[in-house]
Amino acid sequence: MLATTHLFNGGSKVPLMSIQSTKNIESCLVLIVDDDHLSSTLVANILNNLCRSFTASSAADAIEFCENKLPDLLVVDVNMPDINGLELCRQLKARNDTADIPVIFITADLGKDAQVDCWEAGGNDFVTKPVVAQTIVHRVRNQLLSKLRLDALRKLSYEDSLTGLYNRNYLNEEYPRLSRQLMRNHQPLGLIIFDVDYFKQYNDIYGHLKGDICLEKVSAVLKRYTRRARDAVVRYGGEEFIMLLPNTGLSGTREIANQILTDIYQLEIAHKHSPFERVTLSAGAVSIQNIERYPLNDVIEQADINLYDAKLKGKNKVVTG
Ligand SMILES: Nc1nc2c(ncn2[C@@H]2O[C@H](COP(=O)(O)OP(=O)(O)OP(=O)(O)O)[C@@H](O)[C@H]2O)c(=O)[nH]1
């Protein structure tokens, strides 16, 4: 069972130097993994002045925890029955979703071989038993600060500044990882390209600033439909968006695209020069099995052909080919 220690947010705020993250140390989530409940509670209580700490009593519980909510850091006892701390760390570092979570080991063995084992398993640091409160607080704070800075940098490099959606960098990096994972699980990838209809005219009539506001409103609707952990929406071009829907077949992909078009229609963003008298989207959708065999450009091209067809057929439509 996962045990939750008390949450405490009253610790002093640690500044993030030059790169500001939306998150601070106090809101970071640290998972302490130890089969000895007394030890993990002790460490959790020490860390509660710094961040939010939770405990798990086995590697299996820790993995279950990570599948529900990603921690910012794990503090892991090396010696645990069944799966030990080193093996847990190896497993987490091998997974896409948990690979970047830093791990601090707690170990009673400070011999050279034991230290090498910690580094080779992918650990970021270690503390010795018995744990010295000040030492673990400093080590945890250092790892969390690095993690927050890295998260902030990643956010900047993956985010479109106008809409807050992912940008093309993200798409290019995520696609190979995602397609490998889907291939392993024999799951399809649904992909939709959306394009705002008559957007040149919209800018011409209402001005570029209103055009930007329109794109923000459209983006907010698209974002609402990324409901599962790895669903994503990317601003692909000026008024073009790509939605990735892992493990979604063609009918599901089509249904989501249609719902989005309906939602945009119902926003009733006035557009005098559109036959619909409001802003609408057109969409080209595909769902591909064995996705790893297809480069991203091929999949986009296929969806783009469908989008082109939707435009030809009068716009404000979804075409799935
Ligand atoms: N306001 C604003 N406009 C943008 C942005 N990026 C691209 N655009 C505009 O989007 C318009 C796209 O025009 P077109 O590619 O001709 O497409 P369209 O007028 O929507 O025509 P259809 O797609 O056939 O309906 C251009 O006028 C671009 O200047 C942006 O960030 N903000």
UniProtKB/TrEMBL annotation:
Pfam families: GGDEF, Response_reg
Catalytic activity: 2 GTP = 3',3'-c-di-GMP + 2 diphosphate
Domain GGDEF: 187-321
Cofactor field: Mg(2+)
Cellular component aspect of the GO annotation: plasma membrane
GO BP field: cell adhesion involved in single-species biofilm formation; negative regulation of bacterial-type flagellum-dependent cell motility; phosphorelay signal transduction system
Keywords: Phosphoprotein
The protein's name in its UniProt record: diguanylate cyclase
Organism: Alteromonas alba
